[in-house]
């Protein structure tokens, strides 16, 4: 019963996000509430689920609010304009070069293992370039999601650590074979970037009749009157220092990320806009996006709180393996690996690795499969899909920064991401990293 209701909740929410029939907040508040009441839980229990769910995301909400304010104000003062102009000059307006560059930038940004930081660094830097070249911003998110997902196999990445925890082994030992997998996967992603770049180039020519003029692109665009008023060219290097310090403190992890952006936002406002009126104007200018993202993340928190607290996620993970014929059980890790990306849409990271993986590992071990093979299959099968699911707070934040739709991102990216996952999984089976029996 819990499995059926839990799957129904997830399927309906994903369908609503894909079809954009209602706002994400409404979908993630109303549907789980109806589901948990139908499952027989009383209002007192629902209150507990709500409290646990919102408590788990409150720090993320704080970070999103002030991160959006910070990056919005940094854009106002003109911090990213020279960077975008430099990237345009470097790529000479070459669509394919920008596509490949997106992969490389995303790889570097994800090296710290923090998805939120990756989106914070990559999206504000590359989105204006994509717009300037008339490139589809959802291609940016596809390449970013795939690249960051593969790099997230690093030992300090959450998924690899979770697998190592379940297997009770050293995470560095578990990771060693995965380095080769990452190289193979990045080669596939680079090939995809070239292919998508070529396709995007043809689309732009078809839609606009001609590619953007390189000479016009290299020449910095004239600022509008409002942009010129908000820009602070004399304080450019001061703002660069503020930005670098904020990112450094964020990487060091000495302070909570929300507090880092809270401080950074206050400092950049104080230095660039001296009067309270101007400061409030800048806050109000970006408050809409910040509040929208905060409401979505809080709604996602209640959604996950209900699924976890009611036991629906655990029920889904356990029951998934019960419907398979006995003859398929020795290959269960491969089957789950193949379904890894779709499962990202219905299971949280913890439910996948701490709920489903122990069950799969136990069953396949009895059939003679090495526990590490089961771990690699489930890890490699799903990790490329880390940022193509509405259960990813970092993805919500990135889409919020770009003012893009989760549903459109899933529609654009899902099949490419799943295809990449299957090719990478097949390659690791061929190379012997994952054994069938």
TrEMBL record:
Superkingdom as given in the UniProt entry: Bacteria
Subcellular location: Membrane
Protein's membrane topology: Multi-pass membrane protein
Membrane-spanning ranges: 25-44, 56-75, 95-126, 138-158, 178-198, 235-252, 258-275, 287-307, 327-353, 374-396, 416-436
InterPro entries to which the protein is assigned, alphabetical: Cit_transptr-like_dom, Citrate_transporter, Glcn_transporter
Annotated ranges, domain Citrate transporter-like: 15-381
Record-level GO cellular component terms: plasma membrane
Swiss-Prot/TrEMBL keywords: Membrane, Transmembrane, Transmembrane helix, Transport
Major localization listed first in the record, in broad terms: membrane
Pfam families given in the database record: CitMHS
Annotated GO MF terms: citrate transmembrane transporter activity; gluconate transmembrane transporter activity
PANTHER family recorded: GNT FAMILY GLUCONATE TRANSPORTER, TRANSPORTER, PUTATIVE-RELATED
Protein name: Citrate transporter
């Amino acid at each position: 019963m819990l499995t059926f209701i839990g799957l129904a909740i997830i399927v309906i929410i994903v369908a609503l996000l894909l079809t954009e029939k209602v706002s994400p907040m409404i979908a993630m508040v109303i549907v789980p509430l109806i589901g948990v009441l139908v499952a027989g839980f009383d209002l007192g229990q629902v209150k507990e689920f709500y409290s646990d769910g919102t408590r788990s995301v409150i720090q993320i909400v704080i970070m999103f609010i002030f991160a959006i304010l910070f990056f919005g104000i940094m854009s106002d003062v003109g911090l990213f304009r020279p960077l975008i102009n430099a990237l345009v000059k470097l790529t000479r307006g070459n669509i394919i070069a920008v596509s490949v560059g997106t992969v490389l930038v995303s790889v570097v940004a994800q090296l710290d293992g923090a998805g939120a930081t990756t989106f914070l660094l990559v999206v504000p830097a590359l989105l204006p370039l994509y717009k300037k070249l008339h490139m589809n911003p959802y291609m940016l998110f596809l390449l970013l999601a795939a690249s960051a997902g593969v790099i997230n196999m690093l030992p300090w990445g959450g998924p690899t650590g979770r697998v190592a925890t379940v297997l009770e082994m050293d995470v560095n030992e578990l990771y060693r074979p995965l380095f080769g997998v990452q190289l193979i996967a990045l080669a596939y992603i680079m090939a995809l970037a070239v292919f998508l770049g070529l396709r995007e180039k043809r689309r732009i020519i078809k839609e606009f009749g001609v590619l953007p003029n390189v000479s016009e692109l290299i020449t910095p665009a004239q600022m509008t009157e409002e942009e010129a008023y908000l820009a602070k060219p004399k304080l450019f290097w001061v703002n660069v220092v503020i930005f670098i310090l904020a990112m450094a403190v964020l990487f060091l992890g000495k302070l909570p990320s929300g507090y880092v952006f809270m401080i950074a936002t206050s400092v950049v406002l104080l230095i660039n806009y001296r009067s309270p009126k101007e400061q409030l104007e800048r806050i109000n200018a970006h408050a809409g996006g910040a509040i929208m993202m905060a409401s979505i993340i809080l709604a996602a928190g209640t959604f996950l709180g209900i699924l976890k607290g009611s036991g629906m996620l655990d029920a889904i993970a356990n029951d998934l393996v019960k419907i398979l014929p006995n003859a398929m059980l020795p290959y269960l890790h491969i089957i789950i690996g193949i379904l890894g990306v779709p499962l990202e849409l219905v299971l949280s990271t913890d439910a996948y690795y701490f709920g489903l993986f122990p069950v799969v590992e136990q069953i396949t071990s009895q059939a003679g499969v090495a526990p590490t093979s089961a771990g690699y299959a489930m890890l490699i099968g799903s990790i490329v899909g880390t940022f193509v699911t509405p259960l990813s707070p970092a993805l919500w934040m990135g889409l919020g920064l770009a003012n893009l739709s989760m549903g459109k991102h899933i529609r654009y990216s899902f099949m490419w991401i799943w295809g990449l996952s299957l090719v990478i999984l097949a390659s690791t089976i061929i190379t012997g990293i994952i054994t069938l029996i």
